[in-house]
Amino acid sequence: MNFSKRILNMNESPIRKLTPYAEAAKSQNKKVYHLNIGQPDIETPHLFMNKIKSLEDKIIKYTSSTGNDELIDNFIEFYKDYGLDYKRDEILITNGASEGLLFTLMALGDVGDEIIIPEPFYTNYKGICSSIGINVVPITTKIEDAFHLPSKEDFINKITDKTKAILLSNPSNPTGVVYTKEEIETIATIAKEHNLYVISDEVYRDFIYDDKEFNSFGEINPIADRVILIDSLSKRFSACGARIGSIVTKNKLLIKEILKLCQLRLCCPMLEQIGAAELLKTPKDYFISSLDTYKKRRDVLYNELKKIPNITITKPEGAFYIVIKLPVKDAEDFCIWLLRDFSFNNETVMLSPAKNFYCSDLGHNEVRIAYVIDENELIKASQILKIGLEKYTLEKGC
Amino acid sequence: MNFSKRILNMNESPIRKLTPYAEAAKSQNKKVYHLNIGQPDIETPHLFMNKIKSLEDKIIKYTSSTGNDELIDNFIEFYKDYGLDYKRDEILITNGASEGLLFTLMALGDVGDEIIIPEPFYTNYKGICSSIGINVVPITTKIEDAFHLPSKEDFINKITDKTKAILLSNPSNPTGVVYTKEEIETIATIAKEHNLYVISDEVYRDFIYDDKEFNSFGEINPIADRVILIDSLSKRFSACGARIGSIVTKNKLLIKEILKLCQLRLCCPMLEQIGAAELLKTPKDYFISSLDTYKKRRDVLYNELKKIPNITITKPEGAFYIVIKLPVKDAEDFCIWLLRDFSFNNETVMLSPAKNFYCSDLGHNEVRIAYVIDENELIKASQILKIGLEKYTLEKGC
């Protein structure tokens, strides 16, 4: 009655580990500010539900394994606004970015192959790789460098004959770093010189602050056949529950191979694809408004966090997360303590311990904060965090 | 610029192979009767769209990785009507039965492990296993035995120290066999004696004809912790495009392990889960009516096919497929010929070559027919098949 080694080797979701503590806190009528999750509170454009509500289909049918044609066509138009030119046979619709990444990795790597990923990284990268026997080779980025990439040499030192690809999210979850043109070009050069693919998770590409330049790997023509963009409508349109993502690449042979995996699950859901096709027509002022909201939240949060003594912090350039270093030994213990042993005016905060975003034994004194709640709530939550941290460090003597 | 061995070893969808011929036929204005696909033409219960149209949610949010609570609760109630008693922590919602099967196999088997499957089987079983490095060990069932299972000895001869489970669909796609109580009990005994799991794909369980008794593996209490039911709403409610399935097992530890995989893809789509929760409340007369429709179709098709000389045929007991043996050497060549080189009054039929439903080198002279179209169309399609077969055998001299 054994289970597979592959499943036993996988960790339980680190997010889930804290959930029972949050539930216990709430059952004691504590208010919990959720700084731990990436579920935006912005409204999904009404186009989505309006279109679905207008449908008169009598049968909820299978769609094409590649994805709904209209949805793909609208993706093509949408990318044109970014200066990216893709054709129908260069895009596959997936069940969120998660499935897109899983299928891409399955098509590129065998058991024992390696993928280089700058850490800290989105924690599910590790689980997805582990589930299919691919080894993550982390390359550490540091808060002191504002989480920008280490040197070309450092990357090259990580490459072995098992290395298949470099995977990164840009802007980054969890750090909020937006890679510079030089960084993108260095990665591209490494990919070309060492025969690697680049998997670029750009699901946060619409969240770039301070008019910072965003450079997509999709623009780097000399390595176009080595680049796979992983995309999703979840964050862009605040439609996480629609589970609509895409795999985008100029490598048509790769698309043909990944299609085999798409066919095994027949298709993505019909309704969500129809709604998603509408989402891609959302007027640009939606982004302007939501970007403005997130920028204000980032600024408010950053300013509040700056008031907390002895923490290390760097201003995020994109996405809606920040990683901060705390004056504690074990940030997970602190996160549990906040939920279980602490409250201020019967309120507390929930954070994500950042060690789960590393593959190396690092990040023990770091946490990730998501700023997807209201500005006033962010201020209150930061103040509670400040008070909690003072009390914790006093109690624990660290 | 290589791809993984795992993806290169996978076959392109055998269904897809004939699609260009069907498209070419249609572009010549030939009418093509689709006897090749399992997309039912019955209306999805209106409850599904009505509920979704009534929603007033402003944000399309992530749901729980285990699945929407109400949907799980309604599954529990639904199974009670079948005499099956499951709890919340014994059910996971999946993106169709396909994902349910993939996750179950990933949790049970490592690369090189073996799964015994009676053949002919649903062709994607092979692809799903192949994608994760699990080897299919087929055990052949024959049209002459009405596709019932071979002896206990035959099964035991297939078991090695790599065997993890026996997987079967009941009623079977593609054969329409419904396994007897004795067959189910024999499999259960083998599972117990040889420490195996039983993965029972029961997505067609509501399509049982002639008041034949259906026995679910979920009823076999002595091996309850070894049984995993794979279920789906696709066929039952004619809602294939909703992609809502489930993994159901009394083995709570297995659920806990599979949940790790569910968490990696965050959740199933929100809307489809809400609609699916309603589907499970569909009044029983929907099944009575749709079962009646399919039974009539089966009878009409069976009677028409009986009129074709030199074919071997057995009456399906369930599901909505039939496998028939043709007096040809290469049924795939015949299927292509029907689309490319033949028409009768400018009409032709599309069939599925059955060799793709085997893992052994068998089924070359067999095809699968799905009876998911109208009775009159089935009669016409059968008559066209008869004429086509006469002409083909005359031309090819077989």
From TrEMBL, chains A, B:
Coiled-coil ranges per UniProt: none
Domain Aminotransferase class I/classII large: 31-379
InterPro entries assigned: Aminotransferase_I/II_large, AspAT/PAT-like, NHTrfase_class1_PyrdxlP-BS, PyrdxlP-dep_Trfase, PyrdxlP-dep_Trfase_major, PyrdxlP-dep_Trfase_small
BP GO terms, sorted: amino acid metabolic process
Superkingdom classification of source: Bacteria
Cofactor(s) listed: pyridoxal 5'-phosphate
Keywords: Aminotransferase, Pyridoxal phosphate, Transferase
GO molecular function terms listed in the Swiss-Prot or TrEMBL record: pyridoxal phosphate binding; transaminase activity
Entry's EC annotation: 2.6.1.-
NCBIfam families on file: PRK07568.1
Family of this protein: Belongs to the class-I pyridoxal-phosphate-dependent aminotransferase family.
Protein name: Aminotransferase
